[in-house]
């Protein structure tokens, strides 16, 4: 089973908000890191968008996870 932290396990990056993730497939096939960051306005905007996405995903997981029925 593939780890959801594949790139972290391989020692390539430490988190999804690290812009180096944009140098790895499939992102590097979509454009350069600058081209991919530009829609977010800045590196900080990109990092904030990733944090917001992670927060939303983890919040949904906590709300619908196996322990949700017990609360």
CA radius of gyration is 15 Å
- Counting helices, strands and paired strands, the structural category is mainly alpha
Measured distance between first and last alpha carbons: 30 Å
Task: Indicate the low-confidence ranges by residue numbers.
Answer: none
Tally of separate domains: 1
Q: Whole-number average pLDDT?
A: 77
Major pleated sheet: none
Residue share in helices? 40-55%
Order of helices and strands: HHH
Shape: elongated
| Proportion of residues in extended strands | under 5%
Number of helices: 3
Q: Tally the beta strands.
A: 0
Provide a descriptive summary of the structure in words:
It contains three helices and no strands. It has helices at residues 6-9, 33-37, 43-64. 0% of the residues are buried. The mean pLDDT is 77.
Secondary structure layout:
Layout: H1 6-9, H2 33-37, H3 43-64
Can I get a quick summary?
With 71 residues, the protein is mostly helical.
């Amino acid at each position: 089973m593939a780890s959801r932290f594949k790139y972290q396990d391989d020692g390539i990056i430490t988190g999804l908000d690290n812009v180096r993730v944009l140098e790895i497939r499939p992102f590097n096939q979509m454009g350069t890191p600058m081209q991919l960051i530009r829609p977010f306005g800045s590196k900080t905007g990109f990092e904030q968008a990733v944090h917001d996405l992670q927060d939303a995903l983890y919040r949904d997981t906590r709300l619908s996870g196996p322990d949700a029925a017990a609360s």
